[in-house]
Design a protein that fits this description.
14 helices; seven-stranded mixed sheet
């Protein structure tokens, strides 16, 4: 087996995580890193003992000759960079969000197929140990059939108010130029969990979004940080996605409801709870004792599983990225299936496009409605 030569384009904070995972993959070597700020590339190369650093992508591709490139830049550059890397004969791992829109997404996927190369998206939250256990339960028939309803919740901690004000108050920040702004930068993690189970190509989406009172108190009115999305398909599957910055403690969960069983995945605590008919209604007081006891036993099993992994030095904070990186490299080296299907990547992009389209339309309609209100009509509604 030939050694895989790997490069990273974009040397910000997330690049450290990629470099760590690349070093863990047997048969791979990080041969080059690139950033427009040469100092950023140089410091990453020094800390991870990389062969060379660059401030020009063409030079990186020509001189380092990578087989695989990880793109970890802001998403506005993903399409052009991925196109350049694919045309140079490289397999590509693209951080989330994969692209700006569905059009770019499909163009990237098509080019990879045309060139006989492989490309994947940085949906690493799909590959934590808890998500692997969830898929095993589904594969064994735990739901009793296809999901009837799905709920995906993704909360995001805005952190210190002073930090938020400096970040979101910057009119030139790259997040502001994204079609979905903050939502586009982070929600693909939660939406991809739903896209995985969407079978038919047809679906309808209803969207509600708003700026939270917390951000409004900081003078921010342009960033939507509270999102509710209802998805329904022609196969009668419904799904509900919630993105919020306002709940505490943080919640990142996936709930799958089937004809004969349900699965609850807690990504933050790496737990999986399975509910089937044995958790159904018990007579009399047993109903308040037996089911809670069964749930307690499952949580205890989750805890001891996490403890065992920790004691075996197999507990990784970036477990999802570790698994995704290894699986992507296996697909390159040994012809194993891609960890994320191109269909799932496209569906995630399509759902996000429709969410942002509706939010834009909603905002325009709201502005027009306010503009058309007369002072008399408004005052006439007061009590």
């Amino acid at each position: 087996m030939n050694e895989l030569r790997v490069a990273i384009i974009g040397c910000g904070k997330i690049a450290d995580q990629h470099a760590q995972q690349i070093r863990r993959v047997r048969g791979s070597r990080l041969v080059g890193v690139c950033d427009r700020e040469r100092l950023m590339a140089a410091q990453l190369a020094e800390r991870f003992q990389v062969d060379d650093s660059f401030d020009d992508v063409d030079c990186l591709l020509k001189e380092a000759r990578p087989d695989v490139v990880h793109i970890t830049t802001p998403p506005q550059g993903h399409f052009e960079l991925a196109k350049k890397c694919l045309e140079a004969g490289c397999h590509v791992y693209v951080e989330k969000p994969f692209a700006i829109n569905l059009q770019e997404t499909q163009a990237m996927l098509s080019l990879a197929e045309e060139r006989g190369l492989k490309i994947t998206a940085g949906h690493n939250y799909q590959f934590g140990p808890e998500m692997i256990r969830m898929r095993e339960l589904v594969r064994k028939g735990g739901l009793g059939g296809a999901p009837v309803h799905i709920e995906s919740v993704y909360s995001y901690d805005l952190g210190d108010a002073t930090y938020v004000k400096s970040l979101l108050g910057d009119e030139k920040h790259w997040v502001r130029s994204l079609p979905g702004k903050l939502l586009q930068n982070v929600t693909s993690h939660g939406i991809a969990k739903i896209a995985e189970f969407l079978v038919g190509p047809q679906f309808t989406i209803n969207v509600q979004g708003r700026t939270s009172p917390a951000l409004r108190s900081l003078g921010e009115t342009d960033i939507v940080d509270e999102l509710r999305v209802l998805i329904s398909t022609e196969t009668n599957l419904t799904a509900y996605f919630t993105f919020t910055t306002q709940v505490a403690p943080p919640v990142q969960e996936l709930r799958l409801f089937g004809p004969k069983g349900s699965i609850v995945v807690d990504n933050l605590h790496r737990t999986v709870v399975y509910l089937d008919r044995s958790n159904a209604h018990f007579k009399s007081y047993l109903n308040f004792m037996v089911p809670p006891g069964k749930l307690a036993r499952q949580y205890a099993q989750n805890m001891w599983s996490n403890v065992a992994a920790f004691l075996k030095a197999d507990f990784h904070m970036d477990a999802g990225m570790k698994y995704l990186t290894e699986a992507f490299y296996r697909s390159i080296q040994f012809g194993a299936p891609l960890p994320i299907s191109y269909r799932e990547i496209s569906l995630t992009a399509a759902i996000m496009d429709e969410i942002f389209r509706q939010l834009t339309s909603e905002k325009t309609a709201s502005m027009e409605s306010r503009a058309n209100r007369s002072p008399m009509a408004l005052s006439g509604n007061l009590r």
